[in-house]
Amino acid sequence: MSVHKEIKRITVQTLQDFKDKGIKIAMLTAYDYSMARIIDAAGIDVILVGDSASNVMAGHETTLPITLDQMIYHATSVVRGVTRALVVVDLPFGTYQGNSRLALESAIRIMKESGAHAVKLEGGAEIKEGVERILTAGIPVMGHLGLTPQSIYKFGSYTVRAKEEQEAQKLIDDAMLLDKLGCFALVLEKIPANLTEKVTKALTIPTIGIGAGGSADGQVLVSHDMLGITKEFKPRFLRQYVNLSEEIEKAVAAYVTDVKRSDFPNSEEQY
């Protein structure tokens, strides 16, 4: 922890140094100023302003409905709360696929309007031109392979990806391509642990896993999941560090009781 605290500002180069030195990268999501401040102060390396905001902040079933404007709003809030972590923002569904010019415009808007440090895109060879254009503009890009939630309707479920040889080979090829293009890191989601190990060893850039085993160069979780704010989502890969939904419910219930019986505010809590 103290080693990490010594670094005043995490950059994409810091993450590369971490991989080269065998230091694991810790990454979590945040969508608002208050949460960003807390996890930044706790020593997180990377904060992902994920399109998972669509699920945990807005209550949608998938990540598809969230808009670019909404992502910029969340990213702006997060950036204001951060002094040390690298802030990466998801390009939401429909703002980069199949149109490299649109991809560049979307990435520029995020960087200019939010003050974030990098963007993240889902996919491999099919988004090659978009990645190239964004990188040409000097914007750092994080890749994302394996289970790509924006393609949920193509997959049909949130099950583990790349178990079959053909899909595993495509993932390896895509990972090598993203590394070669100049992405600074790669998220690997819900793939077999042995495939993660293979990809991590083959790439020069750091890999960050979620449900992808311990051999990745780093790990990412959705803050609301690991803090127990979301109750329903309990996959095998999730370690819940605290049950905040229970704690918050208890606190609110106590407050309601105190108000109802005129115990709050007491004589010391008024002017």
Characteristic terms for this protein:
13% strand; eight-stranded parallel β-barrel; TIM Barrel; alpha/beta; 271 residues; 12 helices
Structural description of this entry:
- By secondary structure, this protein is α/β, with parallel strands linked by helices.
- It folds into two domains: 2-240, TIM Barrel, CATH 3.20.20.60; 244-271.
- The chain has helices at residues 2-6, 12-21, 33-41, 53-56, 68-80, 100-114, 128-136, 152-155, 165-181, 193-202, 223-226, 244-260, and strands at 25-29, 46-49, 86-90, 118-120, 141-146, 185-189, 207-210, 218-221.
- An eight-stranded parallel beta barrel has the order 1-2-3-4-5-6-7-8, surrounded by seven helices.
- Helix 3 crosses helix 5, helix 5 packs parallel to helix 6 (100-114) and helix 9 (165-181) runs parallel beside helix 10 (193-202).
- The chain is globular.
